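Contributing: when you submit paired examples, paste them exactly as shown. First protein:
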Amino acid sequence: MRFGQMLPPAGAPRDLAMAQLASSVGDGAFVVTSALFFTRVVGLSTAQVGLGLTIAWLVGFLAGVPLGNFADRRGARGTAVLLALTTAAAVASFLAVRSFTGFLAAALVYACSQTGLTAARQALLAGLVAPAERTRIRAFLQSTANAGLALGALLGGVALRFDSETAYLVVFAVDALSFLIAARLLHRVPAIATTRRTAGEPRLAVLHDRPYAVLALINAVMLLFMPLISLIGPLWIVTRTNAPSWVVASLMIVNTIGVTFFQVRVAKGVKDLRTAARSVRYAGIAMLAACAVFATTAAPGLSAAVTTAVLILAAALLTFGEMKLASGAWEISFGLAPADKQGQYQGFFGTGPAIARMLGPAMLTTVVLGWGPIGWLVVGALFLGTSCATGPAVRWAARTRAVNEDTLPSLVEEGVA
C-alpha cells in the first residue's frame, strides 16, 4: 500500500489524518524515551516517575468527560487546537523542570490535554463526516497514527542509541514541535456547530446513560490487550521462553505494521451497529486464539526458531483482534452517542485506554506470569466472554434511544450476541 492510499480523501478528513500523524510522531518518541529522559535528564527516581505518571493519568482519566463536554459547548475545533497547544507546552516544560513538583505539574497538564484532545478530535470527526463514513475515516486515522508512532519510535531509538542529555532534549523538543504542527493542521478544518444544554438536562448526560456506560466498560476490558503487547508479552518472552531477546521488538513491529497497512481494510465490513457488534465478537475470538498460542510457547522442547515463529503468529492474531475491536468500537461509540453530545460521549468512551493502562499491568502480570499457560487461557476466556456481551448491550442501548431505522430491526431480528 502506497502512502497516499493510507490517507482519507482530501479535505477535512485528510487534515485530521495529518494532524494525527504529527501528534503520533510525538507520542511515539515520548513512549520510547520518557523513562530514561525523566530519570537521567530530569533526575527523578523510577519510583517518582511511576507515581507522577500514575497520578497524572488518573486525573487525565477524570478530565476526559468534562473536556469533551467543553468541546461540545465551546466548539470541538477550537478545543482541539487549544489542547494540542497545551500538550506542546507541557512537553516543552519537561525540558526545563528538574524537580518532582515541576514534573508532576507538567505531567498533569500533559495527561489532561492528551485525554481531552482525543475526545475533541472524535467530536470533530463526528461533526465533519457523515455517519455512514465515520468508521471508515476513523480507520484511516488509526492507520496514520500507527505510522506516526513508528516514526516517533524510530526517532526515540536514535536518542537511545546516543544515550546523551542532548539527544533526549532534541527528541522532546521535536515532540513539542509535533503538537504545534498538529494544532496548525486542526485549525485548518472547518468548525462544527456548538450545542447548548437545555433546562433540566444533566450537565454531563453521559454519566446517566447506563447502557452506554456498560458498553464503555466492555470496551475497557477488551483494551486489556494493550498491556499484553507492551508489557506482559515481552516479560513472558524473556522469562518463560527460549526465544532470543530481539523477538520482544517483533511484537511491536508486527502490531504497528499490521494496523498501519490493514486497519482500513478490516474496518470496511463495519457499517452499522449489527456489524459492529459482530466485529467485536470476532475480536474476542482472535484474542482468545492469540492467548492460546502464547500459552504454547512455554512447552518444553521447542526450539528457539519454532518458538519465535509461534510468538509472531500470536502477535499477528492479537493485532487482528485489535483491528476488529477498534472497528466495532468506533461504530458503537459514534452510533449510540447523541449528535449534540459527541464530545462528552467520546470523552467517556475514550477512558478505556486509561483504565487498561492503570489496571492492566498489575492484574495481567499476576494472572499470566503467576499462573503460566493457564493464565493465558483465563485472559483469553475473559476476552471472548466480554466480546459476546457486546451484542446484548448494543441491543439494550439501541432500545433506549433513536437509531437508524434500518439498523434497529436487523439488531432485533438477526441478533448480534
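Second protein:
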Amino acid sequence: MALTAGRIGEETDAADPASVGGGRAATEQAIHALAGGGLRAATVRLPPSVHDETKQGLVTHLIATAGKKHVSAYIGAGDNRWCAVHRQDAARLFVRALERGEAGAHYHAIGEDPIPLRTIAEAIGTSSGVPVIPISREDAAKHFGWLAAFIRTDNPVASRITREALEWAPAGPGLLADVAAAPGPARAEGSPQSA
C-alpha cells in the first residue's frame, strides 16, 4: 500500500506496486476486474507475521537469523512497525470473507496494534538467549540477507473496517507471546550465551 509517513494504513488504501510487497498490487487489480465482472471476489491482506507457537511468518526468519548470528538485531532505533495475526484468527477471517465479503473489498488480517521491530528483536533475544543489538541500514543486507528490505519497512496497518464489516474479533495469542513460546534456535544450536 502507498502509505503516508505517520499514517496507519486502511483497507481503502490501494496497493503500491513500488513497495516491498508490491507483488500484491497485480493480484488486487485482478480481483477488482473479477468483481467488476460480477464475481464476488475480495482480498484478504496478510501481515508480515501470521503466527502460532511454532511458526511466526517472517519473524521465523528473524529467529533463525538470531540463532545463526548469535545476536537479535534491529535497524537504527528499531521504531519501524510490523503487524501480526494469529493463524487461527486469519483462518476465521478468510471464512468470514467468503461468507460475508463484499465484491472488490480489501480486508486486513491484523490481530493487534503494530509492534516496533526493536520490541520484536528483544522478544527474540530473550527467547533465544542472545544479545539484542542495533545495526545500521548499510549493514542490514549483510546481516538479514533477502529479509533486509522487509526489515527496513514501517508497515503500520489497521483492521477497523474489516472488524466492523465482517464482525471479526481476533482472539488468539499475540505475536510476542508466540515468540516467547517458540523453541529458541540459539539455545538449540549451542550459542555462547547458552554454554
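If you have annotations for the second protein, write them as plain sentences, like these:
DSSP finds nine helices and eight strands in the chain.
The two ends are 45 Å apart (CA to CA).
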